[in-house]
Design brief:
75 residues, two-stranded parallel sheet, 37% helix, AB_hydrolase_fold, Epox_hydrolase-like, hydrolase activity, Epoxide hydrolase, hydrolase
Amino acid sequence: MNYKVLVPTIFMIGDQDLVYHFPKAQQDIERMAEHFPLLKEITIVEGANHFLQSERPDIVNDHILQFFKNFLAEL
């Protein structure tokens, strides 16, 4: 597929998430910018599983708040 997501985006995943360990998942994550040209950040959260917002709300909130601050600064 050749598609583009044209909105500012961040991506977060836990390093213990099973999806992160699927075959080629890490390579696909590294190539995300090909389909998300406005990708601002990729964050791999150490020691976290699939439910980042529940397991590490401090980290998730910090990244989301910084994303919005940066977005507003670019307007």
